[in-house]
Design brief:
single chain, 11 helices
């Protein structure tokens, strides 16, 4: 399956996932979702792919590159190596047939669902300074594996806590003792491996 078709499927599933949200969700969920989306937009889409990679507007450390590329997995519009090159070509050929982001020539829905790949290719010169970036290449080569892994972990985190809670407590701040918590919800120490208990013990006073 082509990357373009994978992006289309990804967008379709994201829109499909909104249906149970509208049926069973509460207002706070949509507010929290908007805040999360806004954080991603600032830290990844706007600061990362657009201003950092596409236009080289500022300099930043490697930590930022790892951070912004990780957040790109939640954006769902493809790896930033290609996105930055696409945006550069958009600036070079704005509002012309060679502009991959122009809805006038490619249609609104193709642009909305990132189907630019069906109409043409990005010129190699727009990959300059991107293609040799090891972090960009890593996320580009393993993009769909990373997306699948991230979504799977987020989807399974609650069932995993219920089944393997004891071993996951080091990574979940002691929240894996699900049954213990339900048996006594006011209990401070939930089990042997409970990092949160030691923090509470440090800050609390009787």
């Amino acid at each position: 399956m082509k990357t373009t078709h994978k992006l289309l499927l990804n967008h379709f599933l994201c829109h499909l996932a909104l249906i149970p949200g509208f049926i069973y969700g509460d207002l706070w969920m949509f507010i929290a979702g908007f805040v999360w989306y806004y954080v991603i937009t600032i830290c990844s889409s706007s600061a990362g792919y657009h201003r950092y990679y596409s236009h080289k507007s500022f300099k930043a450390g490697k930590w930022f590159e790892w951070y912004t590329n990780f957040l790109s997995l939640f954006v769902g519009s493809g790896p930033y190596l290609t996105r930055a090159a696409i945006h550069r070509q958009h600036h070079a050929y704005a509002d012309t047939p060679k502009d991959p982001s122009c809805p006038v020539y490619h249609g609104f829905w193709k642009i909305y669902f990132n189907l630019w790949g069906l109409d043409g290719k990005i010129e190699r010169r727009f990959f300059k300074g991107l293609i040799n970036n090891k972090i960009l290449k890593f996320f580009h080569n393993h993009y769909w594996k990373l997306v699948f892994t991230t979504v799977t972990v987020l989807f399974l985190i609650n069932p995993l806590l219920l089944i393997f809670g004891y071993w996951l407590n080091l990574f979940t701040a002691g929240e894996g003792y699900h049954k213990t918590h339900h048996d006594n919800s006011s209990k401070i120490r939930l089990g042997l491996i409970d990092p949160t208990y030691f923090f509470i013990r440090f800050i609390k006073y009787d």
